[in-house]
Fold:
Amino acid sequence: MSVTQRARPGLPRVPAVAVLAYHLTGYRRTWRSGVFSSFLLPTLTVLGFGFGVGGYVDQGVDGVPYLEWIVPGLLASTAMQVAIAESTFPVFGNFQWTRTYTAQNAAPLRAGDIVAGHLAFVLVRAVTASAVFLLVTALFGAVVSVWAVLTLPVVALLGLAVAAPTFGYAAAVSSDSWLAMLFRFAVIPMTLFAGVFFPAESLPDGLRHLAYATPLWHAVDLCRAATLGVPPHWSVAGHLLYLAVWAVGGAALAVRLFRRRLVV
Amino acid sequence: MKRFGDFTAVAGIDVDVLPGEAFGFLGPNGAGKSSTMRMIGCISPPSGGELRILGMDPVRDGPAIRGRLGVCPQLDNLDPDLTVRENLTTYARYFGVPRGAARERAAELLDFVQLTERADSKVEPLSGGMKRRLTIARALVNEPDIVLLDEPTTGLDPQARHLVWERLFRLKQQGVTLVLTTHYMDEAEQLCDRLVVMDGGRIVAEGSPRALIERHSTREVVELRFAADSQEAFAGKLDGLGERIEVLPDRVLLYVADGDAALAQVEARGLTPAAVLVRRSSLEDVFLHLTGRTLVD
Structure:
């Protein structure tokens, strides 16, 4: 065995790809258990909300049957929940428990590569979960427009818009109880008020503007426009720009906080 | 130099590590060894002074330098959910090693650290010694010029330690530069061509293990145990014997050139210790002499 007399490997061309490959290697061992639940959720949704709650909302929303109206909202909120779940404990644990980031930091990777590669993995998770959701609900006949495929790039952008700042948050907090707070004070309120279950327009003034400030509302509005084949409440460009601001700002913050944690 | 706020971890050290040598940083806990290793590993910018690694500046050329380093940290940070082999192949890709080459390299390294049989088992159930060997193998995936080892055998049983030493010695023979920290003196004597003893962020001694013993200790040490609580009383009667007398709560140490001759003189003075040990001076004597016997933490 020769340790020294071999051609020396260079640096990776795109380091973040090597980081993504690492996360996918780990996911290969656990994806089967995840697949079941990603089929289960949309099925339960259709049964519970579509046929259950929908039975009481007999004139639908804006003239659309409740099931068809709620599917795009739940699609976006599923993407958000997967994105945030994958950015809290896994990120915190990679600093605190497995020290995976420390190991990566000792290799020729920069904080930006470590963040980008892991974020890319989170997006893979969020988009595949959304695709399964779309597929199942379409099989139930709850998706009426072919424009629905456009929801996938939208939820990818939403995933980035919520995952990137969550990366920063998980890198900054000192204990995992702060992560549970994020679910209580950000994820649940967003899910309830950002136009997933009922139009944000029916909220009182102050709350309505809070709903508009969430990234989720913008993605819900875009997804709804796509699956129903109707124009959105805001301009498409405005929605995309707003989500992009969260994504870019969040990523910059995350890289900064990762660097602060890794380079001391 | 490395400062954290008001705290100075490394006050100022001046060392040159030559290619192909095994260089050790010794010192009690808190001496600044790990901070020094982090600076050499290019993940902690020095707060002052000049540091060059492989001729490059760690602040400007961090990734380029890290591409040529292998790092074996004090706390294992393997991925517990991946297999032994996957830990190596995924890590190799961080250095731009293509997938096929990474698999080949992993197989070679598993053979080198004697883990081939465990290649496809998960890391989590491995013993401490196996994890350490895997961490060392992982530090070699990029065929590094320099391997940094932070307390490579702390917590291992004697069999595992000797296996690690033997593998590290083989690396050294292949021309890899080893930089290690340890507070095991036998480890330093086994592995290091040259070492520095650090204390309080400074270097207090530098040289080869043998030179340090010659300079800071005598050739032999006589350990005398007298009846409990009477070490002080007897020590008074040993005046003039050897270069230095150290009185400990349970025994008296005589630092001498010739242990048997000194012992004969002790007996000639009519002293009858309960137990006697004549031994060669070790690096541990030097270490304790230079850094003191009081607990650091």
